[in-house]
Amino acid sequence: MRPHGRDALASLYFEYPIFDAPQHLPATQHAPVVIIGAGPIGMISALTLAKYGVHSILLDNKATFNDGSRAICISRSSYQILDALGVVSDFCDHALPWDTGYSYYRGKKILEFQMPDSANEKFRPMYNLQQQYIEQFLYQCVEKNLFIEMRWRSELMQINKDTDTVHLDIKDPLRSYTIACDWVVAADGARSTTRRLCGHRLNGENYEGRYVIADVQMDHDFPTIRRALFDPKSRLGGTVLIHKQPHNIWRIDYQLGPEENAQDAIAETSVRQSVAAVFADIGYAGTWDLEWWSIYSANTLLLDDYRDGRIFFAGDSAHIVPIFGVRGLNNGIADGFNIGWKLAYFLTGKADKDILDSYTPERRGATLDVFANATKSTRFMTPPTQGWQVMRDAALSLALTDTRFGKLANPRQMTPYTYAQSPLTHKDDATFTAGPKSGAVFLDAPYADGYLCDALSGSYSLIYFGQTPPDDQDWCNVLKADPHSTLGDLYDAQNGTAYLIRPDLHIAGRWKHFDKTSFDASLAKAALR
Amino acid sequence: MNQTDLEQVYDSIAQAIDAVGPEKTEVFLAKLSLSIAADYDDLGSVIAKINQACNDL
User: pTM value?
Assistant: First the structure.
């Protein structure tokens, strides 16, 4: 919602472009892949397919980007994906990197947390950037990409599936028509039309706690540090979160009390009063302007299967996660990248169809892992019962004089899921005492003149520590590394150690002592041809 | 006690409070405090903890 007198898209700092439906369409309507939804997840899927030379049609029923700010935190793992797709530079130029959070109880600081970071990594642990910029920067790459055909204002009306083809009935302001395609990626968000037309529903839990989310423009002199205020004067018994975004925009999330009526709470006067009260808490006395606000409650909801035959669900169409811990966008980006490279590998003849079977276990597993972590954060942020409430209050009260209890307020930021059980993952070699495990996302480190992530090319890569690596394979790049280097230390390497890294930067397998037979078996394991 | 174990304790007590219900919560927490204190050898530090718990309520 926006203040009285301003249109839905009248932002204080962002000009929403208005896109037309396509004027002309090709005579035949067939595509290997159609992606429903041109939000961040749909565009990541399309850009990933395009990287491997796979054409897609990208449809969106809107005429512009998602309005309002929505997701703002982009994790390091997502930056690595953006970098792998060659689209990270605009993000680096505009986003605000951060690694620190402060938590306060009744105005006193009880916790300072720091996310792991070092000069060994190319990217910082977290970046703040408004979602409309995320979409704009991705769209600038989509628009130029010859493998992607974008169609705005194009609404999915009906789906007909037969064994080999999916027929999608599409309606835009100029026409109705049908696209025949081999595969569909449904990235059409929390209210997914694809999901509804396929007759699927999300299952899981809704939490009681409600938050108002407001973006405010102000010249507030405070670094990019996430602040959580527990039981502040402005909101007795409740919680407030404060994030800095580019263009002097600040995100204020504040919890509503159980007695507060949602309708009254989102009235503009009420939002202005609540935000002003938060500013009194943080000592900001300057002017400010309200940009946008919304209301939110935490959910843990997901599909039983992220795949329905030739249709794959990615992002919010497959799962809704609580905001605490910034996992919605980041897990969606990982979904889009995951299905993107697997479909591309299959469609370009590099892998068997079996590779597609790994999508649900890997990405649904990631969602369940998110739920386990986010449920803990959510219980702390919005205690669901008297028991959790009493314990939360006790921990916060003790934290005023004892830092051990402040750590219970740690929000457990997003960490990428380890695909330990995936059919594509080798059993971990237990002789390692450090380094990324089989199935985990790779760990960045200095390599050659840059970073390891710069040397990973989009195919499988084998990092071999030592002087006598195996020959380059057509399915796998071989990179030689020094066991006595920072990279070697971080990967617990000795002469003859090797790590096999997948195109999506997860570890497929690792060998303390490289084993050619086991390495050759990777080919079959990954369903590669 | 390490952080993971402390979190486990936190979760278990929260669930126990819900399980015993609001009328019995006080007695439950008193029993719990007393039985944990009984395993302490040092009276002074138990009294210090009682005082600490009185603060910032």
Answer: 0.93
